[in-house]
Amino acid sequence: MGGFSIWHWIILLAVIAIPVVAVFLIVVLVNRSNKPPAATGAAPPPIGQSIEARLRDLDALRARGVVTDAEYAERRAAILGSL
Fold it and tell me: Could you tell me which residue ranges the SHOCT domain spans (predicted)?
């Protein structure tokens, strides 16, 4: 009757391990929720600039070769989608 049996060790492990795992999971979830959102690559629209001016600027960028046709189409759709 001396010493710990295997059941004592299992219960002791469960009593210690469950709170440690719970605290670890809470810390991980809190850290994930505090991260800033990933950048989408699209710049926010200039403040106070009209839709027409933004489309003209986009046309000028495409004419200079700064944006590809695919980027042009995507950004034009985004500008028109903000109406």
Answer: 53-80
